Amino acid sequence: MHINPWQERRKDFRLKDYLPLHYELKTQNRYGNALTQDISESGTRLLLDNFIPRFSKIALQINLNPDKQFQVNGEVKWAERISHSYRYQTGVEFKNVNLENKRNLAKFIAENRF
Fold first, then answer.
1. Taking all residues of the chain, what is their mean pLDDT, rounded to a whole number?
2. To the nearest 5 percent, what fractions of the chain are helix, strand and coil?
């Protein structure tokens, strides 16, 4: 099967949504607030003011709506500076998501997909 290089190759649908979140870097005792740029059942893309190196372990508390938080641990898979900006786009893969959180996130994405 031929794969077009521009074809989406992610395994999960990404919902473009700007969700507020709080993050904490376990090993660096660093934390802050940010926004998601998109989110899927397996990860998210964040807009951050600071660079976080690849493979860093990160804990996220994402506000899916005012009364529901999604808490998950993840690993930074990539980070790149946005041109002409001091901000960074950062890709985080979720790790060891418990079943309840997985269901809540899948439901949120399904309800907001269209």
1. 88
2. 10, 45, 40
Q: Is the pLDDT of residue 7 over 80?
A: no
- Helix ranges restricted to H, 1-114: 99-112
CA distances 47 to 2, 14, 19, 98, Å, are 33, 15, 11, 25
As a whole number of angstroms, the distance between CA 80 and CA 69 comes to 27
Sort strands 30-39 and 88-95 into parallel, antiparallel or unpaired. unpaired
Domain spanning 20-112, CATH architecture: Beta Barrel (2.40)
Buried b (16+ CB within 10 A) or exposed e, 21-31: bebebeeeeee
What does pTM read for this prediction?
Answer: 0.85
Instruction: Report the DSSP pairing between strands 30-39 and 68-81.
Output: unpaired
pLDDT (tens digit, 9 = 90+) per residue, 24-46? 997 778 999 999 999 999 999 99
